[in-house]
Design brief:
The protein is an alpha+beta fold and about 270 residues long. The chain has helices at about 1-10, 10-40, 50-55, 65-75, 115-120, 250-265, and strands at about 75-90, 95-105, 110-115, 125, 135-140, 145-150, 175-180, 185-200, 205-210, 225, 230-235, 245-250. It has 3 domains: about 1-45; about 70-150, Trypsin-like serine proteases (Thrombin, subunit H), CATH 2.40.10.10; about 165-265, Trypsin-like serine proteases (Thrombin, subunit H), CATH 2.40.10.
Length: about 270
């Protein structure tokens, strides 16, 4: 009986009571700590690591669906048609017509396109996504980069937002918008960035381009390649290159440098 009294009244039972009394305090501390951490993240006092937060927000903005990208940027992409003298017969002057695409880069009418789209043109015409048409003048062109800037007399245009092509990674979403075959203005195709810094020789010029599997055709030349934030990351160059599923674009970092010179020299 003494052994039973020791077990019931001794230090073992007293110790058990002390252990149980600490549990509510520990639970309360955990609840307070959890709430504090939540508030710190909720009010951005502490930010989640990027790999945990990629699908919500990045430094470029909110990730968009293809539909949302098109709604954001389609008004910035234009159709371009050209006319040039192709010789003369006894009765009339022969006229050759061409077609391509362009991207609005300022609200007051500056548009970037490929140099080969407007090279040698006597007349340049621009048709906006809303159907309005304008005569355009050539501001400047550069054959080595195949870039040109033209201008129309228009105001309050929706200019594309530049992205950053140097930070692109293979596998990212790519959306191309342009005027394939010169007949289907506003056509949208999507794919991925198939490669960055791809060296391609076009008309004897070695060019470092973005590669995409988004479908492009003649007439897409000068159109826009956009990322998942609706930012302009390249200007499509749709000259003939052997192979299917191969599209190329001039990186926007190159485009920005060239058009700054072309506009500055006007």
């Amino acid at each position: 009986m003494a052994w039973r009294d020791d077990l019931g009244k001794g230090k073992y039972k007293t110790g058990a009571r002390k252990s149980k009394s600490k549990f509510p305090k520990i639970l309360l501390a955990l609840v307070i700590l959890t709430g504090a951490v939540y508030l710190l993240f909720h009010f951005n006092i502490i930010k989640l690591p990027q790999f945990l937060n990629n699908d919500v927000r990045t430094t470029s903005g909110t990730i968009l669906s293809v539909v949302e990208i098109v709604e954001k940027v389609s008004a910035s992409v234009v159709e371009i048609t050209t006319e040039m003298n192709a010789g003369a017969s006894y009765e009339e002057t022969l006229v050759s017509k061409g077609a391509g695409s362009g991207v609005v880069i300022s609200s007051d009418g500056y548009i970037v396109t490929n140099n080969h789209v407007i090279d040698g043109a006597n007349e340049i015409f621009v048709r906006l996504s809303n159907g309005e048409s304008y005569n355009a003048v050539l501001v400047g062109g550069d054959a080595s980069t195949d870039l040109a800037v033209i201008k129309i007399e228009a105001k309050n245009l929706i200019a594309a937002t530049y992205g950053n092509s140097s930070s692109l990674r293979t596998g990212e979403l790519a959306v191309a918008i342009g005027n394939p075959l010169g007949r289907f203005g506003g056509t949208v195709t999507d794919g991925i960035i198939s490669a960055v810094n791809r060296e391609v020789t076009i008309d004897g010029e070695i060019m470092t381009l973005l590669q995409t599997n988004a479908a492009v055709n003649p007439g897409n030349s000068g159109g826009g390649l956009f990322n998942s934030y609706g930012e302009l990351i390249g200007i499509i160059i749709a000259k003939t290159i052997d192979g299917e599923g191969l599209g190329f674009a001039i990186p926007i970092d190159t485009v920005k440098r060239v058009i700054a010179v072309l506009i500055g020299n006007k």
